[in-house]
Each structure stands twice: as structure tokens, then as C-alpha cells.
Amino acid sequence: PLRPIPLIAGNWKMNGVTAALAEAEALATLVATHGVARGGEVALCPPATLLMAMRERLGRSGIATGGQDCHARASGAHTGDISAAMLKDAGARFVIVGHSERRADHGETDEAVREKAAAAVATDLIPIVCVGETESQRLSGEAVRVVERQLDGSIPDGVPTEGIVIAYEPVWAIGTGLTPTLADIAEMHEAIRRRLVERFGEGGHSVRILYGGSLKPGNAREILAVDNVDGGLVGGASLLAKDFFAIISAL
Ligand code: PEP
């Protein structure tokens, strides 16, 4: 099967005010000057307050933007929430759903994540659906089973397989500087691919499966080269243009 076009997405989390857009602009310049390896796609997911201004600063660099969450409904009485249509209106192409921080901080279940992903697809946004085991689940040998259950529950039926992205993010690797071994990453990404093919048939091969969790310039090349790793979701190292560009360059 053809390898999908790789994607490197940056998750700024709750970091970044207007001044931080200088980094987005610097990234746009680096990408415009040097290009992206393997024809990959690049996206930045800033706090929603920066989406429109970031879209303007990125200009025609080809770098896409994304939200970090969306509500399952299209509009209505949901104070503090943001709909997929609003992200789209702000220029977004992607939206992260079911990040482990949202699952933990806001009690998001697989079902809630699935509804958010469905709302994104219905709005013509590409959801980046996050899954990943905790440290105790890894230690007790349940990691693959946990992730399969999250995949089954968090991915809506009837989605175009090119229009959905999975991010495997072991919770214990996020922001800790720890990463699984390359063999463990390969095992998990293969298991995810198998599950997607079981569910979607050949189309399962076109779903991009990103790795996330302490990706850095120093480990990106070896991790991004693992089979079935179709790019990365990058937290801390996406905040500075030079670090993020080093990761993009490792594709
Ligand atoms: C993330 O939270 O999506 C992430 C991968 O964070 P970090 O790169 O900082 O571990």
C-alpha cells in the first residue's frame, strides 16, 4: 500500500500570546526557504485566541492551522466552548480531539471524543484523534488492548480514511522527556494499523498514524523512520521555530 503523506503537527497547548506569533512567522520563513522533507504537511495548533492572527502570519507558507478541541454540537448554549465550524471559520484545517490532557482534565470519554471527531468530519476539518496508555497500563502489559479499545470507541463510523488522523501518545511520554523504545513504537503502530484495516478495509492504510510524546530534534529522525509512523504530534518542541523545524526536517 502507498504510504500516506506524512504530517507533523505542533500542539501549543495553553501556551502563546500575540508575541509568540513571531515563532510562527519564523517557521513560515524556514519552511518557505528550505521546504519540507518527503512532501510532508505541517500544521500548528495554537490556543483558539491566536488562530486567526496565526493564519494571517503563516500566509502562503503552506503551513496549516488547527484547533486543540471542539464541541460536538454546531452551535448553541455551551458557554466557553468552540464549535468545529468556528475553527473552520478561523482558517483551521485540523482539530486535535481526545488529547490525554482533555481526557484527564475534562473527563472526556471515548464516546465524547467520537462525537467531537464526527463534528469535525462533518465540518470538513480533519480530526487528530489522540489515544495512548498510562504508565500503569503499560507496566501491566495492557497497552495495546487499551489503545485498541480507545480506537474502537473514539473513531466515528463512515469517516473518509484520508480525512482522519490518529495520534498515538503514551500518556507517560508526554512532557516527560521519556519515549518508548523504537520496538515498542513499532509494535503499537502496527497494532493500530491492523485495527484500522480490520475496521475500514484497505482504506485503513491511508489513515495517518502520528507518534507523540517527547519528540525532540534529537530523537525525531529515528522515531519518524519507524514503520507505520506517518509523522508526529509535537508539544513542547513546537513552541520554538528552530526546534520544530528541526523535527520537520527529520521526516
Ligand atoms: C502532546 O501533548 O501532544 C505532546 C506530544 O507533548 P510533548 O511533545 O511536550 O511531550
From TrEMBL:
<keyword id="KW-0413">Isomerase</keyword>
<dbReference type="Pfam" id="PF00121">
    <property type="entry name" value="TIM"/>
</dbReference>
<comment type="similarity">
    <text>Belongs to the triosephosphate isomerase family.</text>
</comment>
<comment type="pathway">
    <text>Carbohydrate biosynthesis; gluconeogenesis.</text>
</comment>
<protein>
    <recommendedName>
        <fullName>Triosephosphate isomerase</fullName>
        <ecNumber>5.3.1.1</ecNumber>
    </recommendedName>
</protein>
<dbReference type="GO" id="GO:0006096">
    <property type="term" value="P:glycolytic process"/>
</dbReference>
<feature type="binding site">
    <location>
        <position position="175"/>
    </location>
    <ligand>
        <name>substrate</name>
    </ligand>
</feature>
<dbReference type="InterPro" id="IPR000652">
    <property type="entry name" value="Triosephosphate_isomerase"/>
</dbReference>
<keyword id="KW-0963">Cytoplasm</keyword>
<dbReference type="GO" id="GO:0019563">
    <property type="term" value="P:glycerol catabolic process"/>
</dbReference>
<comment type="pathway">
    <text>Carbohydrate metabolism; erythritol degradation.</text>
</comment>
<dbReference type="InterPro" id="IPR022896">
    <property type="entry name" value="TrioseP_Isoase_bac/euk"/>
</dbReference>
<feature type="binding site">
    <location>
        <begin position="11"/>
        <end position="13"/>
    </location>
    <ligand>
        <name>substrate</name>
    </ligand>
</feature>
<comment type="subunit">
    <text>Homodimer.</text>
</comment>
<dbReference type="InterPro" id="IPR035990">
    <property type="entry name" value="TIM_sf"/>
</dbReference>
<dbReference type="GO" id="GO:0006094">
    <property type="term" value="P:gluconeogenesis"/>
</dbReference>
<comment type="function">
    <text>Involved in the gluconeogenesis. Catalyzes stereospecifically the conversion of dihydroxyacetone phosphate (DHAP) to D-glyceraldehyde-3-phosphate (G3P).</text>
</comment>
<dbReference type="GO" id="GO:0046166">
    <property type="term" value="P:glyceraldehyde-3-phosphate biosynthetic process"/>
</dbReference>
<feature type="active site" description="Proton acceptor">
    <location>
        <position position="169"/>
    </location>
</feature>
<feature type="binding site">
    <location>
        <position position="214"/>
    </location>
    <ligand>
        <name>substrate</name>
    </ligand>
</feature>
<dbReference type="InterPro" id="IPR020861">
    <property type="entry name" value="Triosephosphate_isomerase_AS"/>
</dbReference>
<dbReference type="InterPro" id="IPR013785">
    <property type="entry name" value="Aldolase_TIM"/>
</dbReference>
<keyword id="KW-0324">Glycolysis</keyword>
<keyword id="KW-0312">Gluconeogenesis</keyword>
<dbReference type="GO" id="GO:0005829">
    <property type="term" value="C:cytosol"/>
</dbReference>
<dbReference type="GO" id="GO:0004807">
    <property type="term" value="F:triose-phosphate isomerase activity"/>
</dbReference>
<feature type="binding site">
    <location>
        <begin position="235"/>
        <end position="236"/>
    </location>
    <ligand>
        <name>substrate</name>
    </ligand>
</feature>
<feature type="active site" description="Electrophile">
    <location>
        <position position="99"/>
    </location>
</feature>
